[in-house]
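Ticket #4471: structure output looks truncated?

Reporter: J.K.
Steps to reproduce: submitted the chain below (367 residues) through the standard prediction queue, then opened the result file.
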Amino acid sequence: MAQPPAFQSLDPDLFARAQRLLDDDWLARDAELAPVLPIVLARGVGQDWHKAGTFRHHLVGVARTLALWRQPREVRLLGLLHSVYGNAFVDLVKFDPARERARLQGAVGEAAEELVYVFCTASRSQFMRRVLAGQIEADGTVVLDDRRLAPAVVAAFIVVSMADICEQWFAWQEDIYSGFPDVPQVAQGAHWMAALWPGPMRPPSRMYAAISRLGAALRHPALAGRLPAPPVFDHGRQTLDADAEAAAASLYWSVVSQDQPLVQPHAATAALEQAVRLNPWVGEPQMLLAQLYLIAGRRDAALAAADGALQCYSAWGNAWDKRVQWDAWMAWARILRQGAVTGEWPGRLDKLNNVALRPDAAGARAA
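Returned output as attached by the reporter:
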């Protein structure tokens, strides 16, 4: 039997921060964001479609990740408002930039509103291309065709872009935006299957490599330290190879879609272990491994895998596999961790319906 892959340890402080964001009312408790939310909700964002949910889900999800990453007020507000003036990718204009900038300035302040305005009106694709190509000037500026972005703006746009992409990207968007940030003009009639929303809901196969490179760009000498480093990819010290990401996603999906022998779990376990070796930065493959290890009675391996999954979930604040929401992945991973610690795991399928987190039990929360 091959040795399990190396799993990250669970950081108790990061896990505690993530737990505080699990309840739906977390935003209402944020003194700096809470007053702004009703203004946005009044524009109907809860009814607008957006990728894997509604526009409200997206804006709140991005803001949640930025709160988890301990970003300053202006950056968190940018996350909550980042597309309200519309942009080249999202035709959802909730505030008219020609007439309503003063209204938003009155609600969030001039500095935060300016960030939102520039983020909506600058070329996002060109910004992504420049940063991913390493075209950041020595002083930390990024030069676009129509403007030069100051280092503080560049850092904020990188962090918000990381949170924005991780919240929304899945296979349907990957297919229709194939090649992003260079998006080819592909006819729907010729590729009708890719157009059918939401598709099979596979996780993305290439975008987290790009996110890792965005995180690494924050280590540019003129950008380093301007904002708290997001706790993903070892705080930007590591990058993910795009080919490794694609292979890991394919291995994971082969298990999820049950394209593996269904009588014994050895092949599925091996596929997931290799997926984790290739991409150790997302939690879902590790979480599935934790359950397979529990079924096999391998409690120590199950605990390590559950901790690794929770560490990844706690670092992102959004799900990689968009079939269910982040809080649900967190909840099941905590159940698995509890089972690994207590040694109590159902031997029958029907008893899985009865498992519940016991706050007073060992393993319910990180030490």
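Triage note (M.O.): checked the attachment and the full token line is present. Confidence is low (pLDDT under 50) at residues 362-367.
Status: closed, working as intended.
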